[in-house]
What does this fold into?
Amino acid sequence: MSDHYATLGVARDAPPDEIKRAYRKLARQFHPDANPGDPEAAEHFKEVNRAYEVLSDPQKRSNYDTFGDERAGAAGFSDFGGISDLFSTFFGGAATGASRRGPGRGADTLAEVELTLEEAAVGADREVEVTTLVSCDVCAGSGSEPGTWPSRCSDCGGTGETRQVRRTVFGNVMTAATCPRCGGRGEEITSPCKNCRGRGRVQVTDTLTVQIPPGVDDGAQLRVSGRGEAGLRGGRSGDLYVAINVRPHEVFRRAGDDLACEVTVPMTIAALGGTVEMPTLEELEPIEIEPGTQSGQVVRLRGRGMPRLGGRGRGELVGLLKVETPTDLSDEEVELLERFAKLRGERTGQRGLFDKIKEAFQ
Ligand SMILES: [Zn+2]
Ligand SMILES: [Zn+2]
It folds into this structure.
C-alpha cells in the first residue's frame, strides 16, 4: 500500500485545508472522465480517493499516523481478532493462542544423504530412511477410541488458554498462556485410542526415494514438502529436509560451480612444449603445454565444472600446472642433464657446493 501523504503530495503535518486542496487538484487530474481508457489514471484516481478518505477524517488520520492503518488503535482491538492475536502481532506470537486457530502442523524432520562429487554432478535418486510420526489409522488421528468423542477441558472451559493479569512497571498486563491441561486444544480425550494411546499419531519407519538434482553442493538442504511428521488431529504434515553431504574428492576441489585440480607436467614438456592429460569429471582430456611453461600457471576448461543447480550450463574446470622434477634418473639421463647444465653455465651436483665453500675459505 502506498503512503497516503505521498499519494496526495503533502507533508505529514499538512493542515486539513491543504489536504483538501491537494485532493481536489489530483482528483480533477486523474478523473476517469478526463482520462478515458487509461487504466493507470483510473488506479491513481482510486488511490487519491482512498488517501483523502483517511486523511480527511481526524480519527482515521490519527490511527494511520500511529499504527500505519486507519482501522487500528481507537477503532478497538476486535479488528485484530482477539487478544492473543494482538500479542502475536506485537510480541511475535509469544503469548500463543495463534496455535489454537488450526490443527497443529507436524514437525519438520531431517535426513542425511552422502554423495560423491561425481554423483552430485549428475544428480541421483537416493532411498532415505525416515523415522517419523504418521496419523493413526485406527482413530483417523483424533486420538479418541472409535465411537467416542472428546469432552470440553475442565480447566479452561474449552478456550485452550489461561489468562493472568500481571503487574509490571508498565501497568497491568494481560498475559494469555496455553492451558497446560489440554495443551491448548480446549478438549480432553476421555477414551484414548488403544493403537496410538490417545496421541493420534504413531511412529513408523518409512523409506522414500529422494531425487537429488545435478549440481547440489555440500551443506545444501532439499525440502520434500509434506513428508515430515504428520500434523496433530488432521493438521498439515511437516516437511522433510534432506541434508546433502558431498564427500571430498581426491582429485577435484570445488568452489561453487567451479572445480580445480592439479595437472602434473614433466620437466621436459614444460621446457619444450607438448601434450599432457588433464583429469576432468568424465575423462582424461589432452591439453597443450606451451614451451617454457612454469609451475603455478593455470589452464581453464569452460563448461567442464559442476552443473549450475536449477540452472543451465556448468562452471569451469581450472587446472593448476605443476612442473615435476624427475627423481629416478638413470646414469645416462644424469649424463645428459649434466651436459645440458654445462651448456647453460649452471654448476650442478654436490661438488659444486663444496667448491663454493672452499672458495669462501680461501
Ligand atoms: Zn489412534
Ligand atoms: Zn484446557
